[in-house]
Design a protein that fits this description.
By secondary structure, the chain is an alpha+beta fold. Helix content is 16%, strand content 28%. The protein folds into 2 domains: 38 residues, no CATH class; 113 residues, Rieske [2Fe-2S] iron-sulphur domain (Rieske Iron-sulfur Protein, 3-layer Sandwich). It is built from 3 helices and 10 strands. The chain has a 4-stranded antiparallel beta sheet, with no helix packed on it. It has a 3-stranded antiparallel beta sheet with strand order 1-10-9, with no helix packed on it. A 3-stranded antiparallel beta sheet has the order 2-3-4, with no helix packed on it. About 17% of the residues have low confidence. It binds FE2/S2 (inorganic) cluster (FES). The site of FE2/S2 (inorganic) cluster (FES) has 12 residues, from loops. Pfam families: Rieske (PF00355). One of its GO terms (molecular function) is arsenate reductase (azurin) activity. This is Arsenite oxidase subunit AioB. Keywords: 2Fe-2S, Iron, Iron-sulfur, Metal-binding, Oxidoreductase.
Length: 174
């Protein structure tokens, strides 16, 4: 194999393995329509930033039932009184989750004695102290978790959701 063909072979192999050459292989057209085509590929709509409550409105062991990102999406805001995985706030104990089961959309009930959400339909359980981890049942996805922010005044905001709310193709409806 000549030196030139060997270099070409190695470069081609790197492209196949890494896919790194795909973008550079495309011609740069510079057409105005390119920007429009790119924007139609964006399916993620911006999440609303919604004030839920103030830190002082939450007591340890309490569940507040709210909705986010719209009224058709029930969530639970929880304060555990001890640090939990992905917990927010001064005690790292505040989390929020969708109340729709990821199996078939049953409306979940939070039970303080287990620290988990329980599904009344087929008995799945999601651990609210471990990021909504599925711990038992037929659900294969963890519970979508609401992303929270707390400002300097202590107001708690919902700003996004990790995971797809059951029954939706997009969390934020157009
Ligand atoms: S709908 Fe929740 S376990 Fe089936």
């Amino acid at each position: 194999m000549s030196d030139l063909s060997r270099r070409h072979f190695l470069k081609l192999g790197a492209c196949v393995v890494g896919g790194a050459c795909a973008a550079s292989a495309l011609p740069e057209t510079g057409h105005a329509g390119d920007a429009v085509a790119a924007s139609t590929l964006t399916t993620t709509l911006p999440y609303p930033r919604v004030k839920l409550v103030h830190l002082t409105d939450l007591k340890a062991g309490q569940e507040l039932r709210l909705s986010y990102p719209d009224n058709a999406s029930p969530i639970s805001l929880l304060k555990f009184g001890k640090p939990v995985l992905t917990g927010m706030g001064p005690d790292q104990d505040i989390v929020a989750f969708s109340r729709y089961c990821t199996h078939m959309g049953g409306t979940l009930q939070f039970k303080a004695d287990t620290g988990a959400f329980h599904c009344p339909l087929h008995y799945a359980m999601f651990d609210a102290q471990k990021g909504g981890l599925t711990v038992i049942g037929q659900a294969t996805d963890n519970l979508p978790q609401v992303e929270l922010e707390i400002d300097a005044k202590g107001d708690i905001y919902a700003v996004g959701i990790k995971g797809l709310i059951y029954g939706r193709q997009a969390n934020v409806l157009a």
